[in-house]
From TrEMBL:
Recorded GO MF terms: monodehydroascorbate reductase (NADH) activity
Known EC number: 1.6.5.4
Membership in a protein family: Belongs to the FAD-dependent oxidoreductase family.
Protein name according to UniProt: monodehydroascorbate reductase (NADH)
Any one cellular-component term (Gene Ontology): cytoplasm
Keywords, sorted A to Z: FAD, Flavoprotein, NAD, NADP, Oxidoreductase, Redox-active center
InterPro entries per the UniProt record, alphabetical: FAD-oxidoreductase/Apoptosis, FAD/NAD-bd_sf, FAD/NAD-binding_dom, FAD/NAD-linked_Rdtase_dimer_sf, MDHAR3-like_C
PANTHER family: APOPTOSIS-INDUCING FACTOR 1, MONODEHYDROASCORBATE REDUCTASE 1, PEROXISOMAL
Domain of life of the organism encoding this protein: Eukaryota
Organism whose genome encodes this protein: Carnegiea gigantea
Domain FAD/NAD(P)-binding positions: 6-320
Catalytic activity, reaction form: 2 monodehydro-L-ascorbate radical + NADH + H(+) = 2 L-ascorbate + NAD(+)
Amino acid sequence: MAEKHFKYVILGGGVAGGYAAREFATQGLKPGELAIISKEAVAPYERPALSKGYLFPESAARLPGFHVCVGSGGERLLPEWYKEKGIELILSTEIVKADLSSKSLRSAAGEAFKYDILIIATGSTVLKLSDFGVKDDAKNIFYLREINDADKLVEGIKAKKNGKAVVIGGGYIGLELSAALRINSMDVTMVFPEPWCMPRLFTADIAKFYEGYYANKGVKIIKGTVAVGFGSHANGEVKEVHLKDGRVLDADLVVVGVGAKPLTTLFKGQVAEEKGAIKTDGFFKTSAPDVYAVGDASTFPLKMYGELRRVEHVDHARKSAEQVVKAIKVSEEGKSIEEYDYLPYFYSRSFDLSWQFYGDNVGDAVIFGDSDPASPQHKFGSYWVNNGKIVGAFLESGTPEENKVIAKVAKVQPLVESLEKLSKEGLGFASKV
Ligand SMILES: Cc1cc2nc3c(=O)[nH]c(=O)nc-3n(C[C@H](O)[C@H](O)[C@H](O)COP(=O)(O)OP(=O)(O)OC[C@H]3O[C@@H](n4cnc5c(N)ncnc54)[C@H](O)[C@@H]3O)c2cc1C
């Protein structure tokens, strides 16, 4: 098979791949210079939609509605856009071998690709229960990462209308999926081992609100235990979930959200890694010549905190993609740009809730506002104070202006005199910064 050569290849047509393509077009690109190679069958899209609008029982989000870059208020890049710009979108193509020394890639179907510059944007893959030794091959056990997973889940939900769903995991996917299944009138039980949901970000106080809110919506929550197996019907469909504490839950459908890991296996031994992803500098350059890594697949210097971090959130995928293309383009002119100076930003939406978080969740957490799950306004937040300074801020049900205010406070890191006073002042403190 003839080998195809491109000046730039982006491996992975997800969020970072799409935003990088837009930045290349902005910076100037000749037709035929850039290719995006992606395992998925569709042009880059805003992945967060899969666990939210995509699962709505009515007026569900569908492509082409959420192709990048609509998630950040930008232009929607339809497949025709790539054609117009002379960008080759090579879809349904999984790369199974990468040889960085000869700058070549090979697909599962045997196609060969050569590049001058490679941007690795392979994202993450879900952790499976089978990775922990739990057999998960019964029908109607779902994972969610890509659009074809979401399509299977939608079919599963339709087939088990008003049935019983068990959601395994209490993180982002667990919380968003429990809400989506409940909105689809399923009887939902969440199971997770930790003492409260989203323990990597939420404090016990924050989690108390969400758990109470979910309970009021009819979601049952079982904490402190894990799934150790499944029972199935004669037709292979899941029937029950076996928990470590001995309980058995009836289930017509199971969704598992127990984490994800960066997809770096293709490059093992060829490029330096750190904290489970590919190590880069502040321009997303890796240890291999002419190879860059962005989004979930990168571990980069988080300048504000003076350490290397991995961030598996959409905002970083977008911004790292823009940074890498700018860095590549200026380096071709022998110039350079400022290194990446990222303020971590995460968000989630479920039911009629919507939160945003900026900064770092270390130090003392100070809750403020109305965090009663039964309250109609449920506007509350939390600051994190470390070494006398606010380093992180979280807000539920903030307006766009209020969200800007908490982003600023996390960036500016003002000094705090009294935690008690801060709690009383709440958002008022941040708006004065
Ligand atoms: C369901 C869901 C909901 C989410 N919701 C939120 C949210 O609300 N807020 C938030 O901040 N973040 C959210 N995230 C996380 C966010 O979507 C990711 O951080 C972001 O998509 C990372 O972008 P990426 O480009 O690095 O990887 P991805 O968007 O995952 O794209 C990687 C692409 O590379 C392709 N690929 C991988 N390996 C190969 C290969 N060998 N050959 C060819 N192609 C390959 C994949 O098929 C995929 O298309 C969510 C994630 C998921 C799965």
